[in-house]
Write a structure and sequence with these properties.
Blueprint lengths: L4 E14 L2 E17 L11 H23 L7 E8 L5 H8 L2 H10 L7 E6 L6 E7 L10 E5 L9 E9 L11 H7 L11
Parallel strand pairs: 3-4
Antiparallel strand pairs: 1-2, 2-7, 3-5, 3-7, 5-6
Helix pairs in contact: 1-3
Length: 199
């Protein structure tokens, strides 16, 4: 059993000026998406595992290869995330099922040498629905400069019986980051950062 893929889509954005100030280098965010037929569309299915176990590795491997190529290598990716949008004849559970499995996310995590979990969204919508992929630093969940969102849409997807499955990434954080990190907030509140039990 293999996923029926109607199309593959990539998104790539480079920002040179942010907030009326030039960036030191291009701020680059990108995504790789697969538009797949939803095998559970239009009906209630109790056991989703057979399709999840069959689809996850193929989609995870394929999209990881595409996004790593787009980035120019796993080391180039500093922030990462995943998302899925299910069409109107499906459940949000279907979108969740395809991206919340080790057989999907571990390909990407290992390819970029990440330590933190993959930020995610699971939503439902019609064709041209906004696809929002939240990102975070691949090694440091408290690094706010890398709290980003890749947003794009696909004009003809998802159809009612489809799911759009997406990996997103960025080569840096926001160009003019100046709101501090989670650790500074905790320190300002008097937490002992050398003692994890106190945080």
């Amino acid at each position: 059993m293999a996923p029926e893929i109607r199309k593959l889509v990539t998104f790539d954005e480079e920002t040179f000026i942010e907030g009326f100030k030039s960036a030191a280098g291009p701020w680059r965010m990108f995504a790789a998406a697969a538009v797949v037929w939803n095998p559970w569309a239009g009906r209630y299915v109790e056991d989703l595992k057979p399709e999840i176990q069959a689809y996850g590795p193929e989609l995870g491997s394929m999209l990881t290869d595409r996004i790593i190529t787009l980035a120019g290598g796993g080391d180039a990716i500093e922030a990462y995330g995943k998302a899925a949008v299910v069409g109107l004849d499906g459940e949000v559970e279907h979108a969740s099922g395809l991206i919340h499995t080790l057989r999907f996310g571990n390909f990407y995590r290992e390819a970029v040498g990440a330590k933190s979990y993959l930020a995610f969204t699971n939503t439902r919508g019609p064709a041209n629905a906004p696809i929002q992929v939240p990102l975070m630093d691949k090694n440091d969940a408290g690094r706010r400069s890398h709290y980003l969102t890749v947003q794009f849409s696909i004009a003809d997807a998802p159809r009612a019986d489809e799911i759009v499955v997406v990996l997103g990434g960025a080569t840096s954080g926001r160009p003019h980051h100046r709101i501090g990190d989670r650790y500074q907030d905790l320190k300002d509140l008097g937490h002992d950062l050398d003692n994890p039990a106190a945080v």
